[in-house]
Design a protein that fits this description.
There is one protein chain. The chain has 285 residues and is α+β, with helices and mostly antiparallel strands. Helices cover 27% and strands 28% of the residues. Strands 1, 2, 3, 4, 5, 6, 7 and 8 form an eight-stranded mixed beta sheet that branches. Strand 3 and strand 4 form a beta hairpin. Helix 5 packs across helix 6. The two termini are 27 Å apart.
């Protein structure tokens, strides 16, 4: 779960502002994390991670870091658990949230980099987390700003949710961020301002079939899915269904996400067939 973008409303918060990133320590600070969860995912959200569980996870090798303003107010936090995955010590970053008035000021990235540094000292090999593929700002942040890769696509990963942010369901991409080596910002970004010219799947109006012989395909998403939900929930739901069908088909056929571009009207995932021999049956998805 990640909420990091949207324009900042506080002009005093900018990239490099005086914000301290450090471990969450006191009960009051953990309770501030709880309140920020409610502010971010909605007051009715029932999957709040309680203070006791956050504290226990940290005692067992988890991470809970807060971003604090000079006056001590919590502006954001990142929380996750650590354990074995695929033969290596890994970390699952369960939550990253930044207060709405502090977003787009670089705090989310600073929290992730601090998380990365702390996990590196513990010998962790990789960090995993999920994000909604329809949220272009998070795709840009995760893939282009952080240089994460995509491990898999999971339809309806969390099932029914009472969070207002999950009104379109909980299809998720699982990001994998290697701890080894340096962070390469914008390593995956493509110039999509004028479109890619690639075969398209997943967008309303796109051909729903897998184009024969197409080893590279784009899957577009709205630039601002939240605004689209507010303007036309049915249109947003159409995007979800098309996106789900496209990713389900492409991942099952051996395609990987290899880039993300930000254009004037859409974000675009770029997928390449890892075998170089795409399916040719042409069935719709």
């Amino acid at each position: 779960m990640t909420t990091v973008a949207r324009p900042a409303t506080d002009p005093g918060l900018s990239e490099g502002a005086a914000v301290t990133i450090r471990p969450v320590e006191t009960r009051a600070e953990y309770e501030a994390c709880i309140e920020l969860q409610r502010d971010t995912w909605g007051r009715s959200f029932s999957d709040i991670v309680p203070v006791s569980m956050m504290g226990i996870a940290v005692k067992m090798g988890g991470i809970c870091l807060g971003a604090f303003a000079s006056g001590g107010a919590m502006l954001g936090f990142v929380f996750g658990v650590t354990g074995p995955r695929d033969g290596e010590l890994a970390h699952w970053s369960h939550m990253l949230a930044v207060r709405e008035e502090a977003r787009n000021a670089g705090i989310g990235r600073r929290l992730k980099l601090a998380q990365r540094e702390a996990l590196s000292e513990m010998g962790v090999g990789a960090v995993y987390w999920t994000f909604d593929p329809l949220v272009a700002r998070n795709a840009h942040f995760n893939l282009n700003r952080l240089g994460a890769t995509i491990a898999e696509f999971v339809p309806d990963m969390y099932g029914h949710s009472d969070s207002d942010l999950h009104c379109l369901g909980t299809d998720r991409l699982i990001a994998r961020w290697s701890i080894k080596g340096d962070v390469t910002a914008d390593a995956w970004e493509c110039d999509g301002s004028a479109g890619t010219g690639l075969p398209c799947m997943g967008r309303p109006g796109c051909n729903g079939s897998l184009p024969p012989g197409a080893d590279v395909i784009e899957v577009p998403v709205p630039l601002d899915i939240d605004r689209l939900v507010a303007e036309s929930f049915e249109e947003a739901l159409t995007w979800r269904r098309g996106n789900n069908a496209a990713f389900s088909r492409l991942f099952s056929e051996g395609y990987d996400i290899v880039g993300f571009s930000v254009g004037e009207e859409h974000g675009r995932y770029i997928l390449a067939n890892r075998t170089g021999a795409s399916a040719t049956d042409g069935h719709g998805v």
